[in-house]
Amino acid sequence: MSGVPIAFALILVAIALLVIARRLRLRSGLPAGRVIYSDIGAWQRNERVLLSPTYGIAGKPDYLVRAGNDIVPVEVKSSPAPARPWPSHVLQLAAYCLLVEEALDARVTQGIIQYADKRFIVDYTPALKAELLRVVGEMRCALREGDAHRSHDEPSRCARCGARTACDERL
Predict the structure, then answer these.
(1) Which pTM value belongs to this model?
(2) What is the predicted pLDDT for the residue at 30?
(3) Rounded to whole angstroms, how far apart are CA atoms 67 and 113?
(4) CA of 131: how far to CAs of 61, 86, 87, 135, 153, in Å?
(5) Which site from 68, 99, 101, 111 is most exposed, i.e. has the minimal number of CB atoms within 10 Å?
(6) Is residue 29's pLDDT more than 80?
């Protein structure tokens, strides 16, 4: 009978760990499902870049979660949430949706932008895809014409930029 208190204690610990894990997942902004890709770098950086030869774009979403038959891209932002997600963040997420469609040949119906204090679920619609492709086309045109310039409104953002070493406009 001395094993009964130990078994009971282990069951209580298991329940407590499940509750803690659920709270952490909810706080992370990840939907229910299995994480199949992560570029957050908690233990190591993910070097796998998603590529789209068709549209000439590449990227590394923070997370990809398989939810049923769908894959949900999740982009994590450390800043507090605005009233609505920033348009640039929505287009970044749309690019990840497009990359998942092409690179992984998977169905994508929505993505998530997780700010520090709130998450937004963004539907990946044909209209959003068209807007993304329009903006990508404008960016390519600006590059071809030599009229592409980086925004340097925030010096700290420039200092953290991944293209900083190759940028001739860095601060």
Answers:
(1) 0.73
(2) 66
(3) 16
(4) 19, 14, 11, 6, 25
(5) 68
(6) no
